[in-house]
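S1.2 Input.
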Amino acid sequence: MRLALIIVSVLITSWAGAVLAAEDTAMPTPVLATTMTDIDGKPYAFAADSGKVIMLVNVASRCGNTPQYTALEAMFEKYKDQGFVIVGIPANNFGGQEPGSDPEIKTFCTSKYQVTFPILSKVSVKGDDICPLYQYLTTQSPFPGPIGWNFAKFLVGRDGQVVARFEPKTKPDNADLVAAVEKALAVPTPK
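S1.3 Output.
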């Protein structure tokens, strides 16, 4: 009888330890679980950005907001060493303002605006062919709603949760946007 109680006690302890270990293993958030294709045709796994503050921006080369690339690059340079990354996501959904191929988009971004932050392959951010990331951002994130134009911005905290959304006309050096980035960067990296 005593041996049976010891065996049951060991089994319960092992089971409880497994349950606690499973609780410590957090599932990745929808953003961090996403893999897309970068502008060079290689996989871009957002899981590699886990613990960073991420700004997702749908971009276009022939838009009135295109000059925002300058301020986006400046913001990236200023905060990248603190764990900040901007990810540019080209889309041709608004007025055909991103008609180029991926190589053309890359050349435009690097030669005209000296962009060094990651740029992904062109996708759709609305409509029947919306990519899964923007499907999540516009319907299930804490800031739902359709993308209104190029250069909408979603801010993702170090924990992978969407913490803010800024409309296309909000420039990267806008005081509220900068404050949101700095607030997100002040949060310790999750362990």
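S1.4 Remarks. DSSP finds five helices and six strands in the chain.
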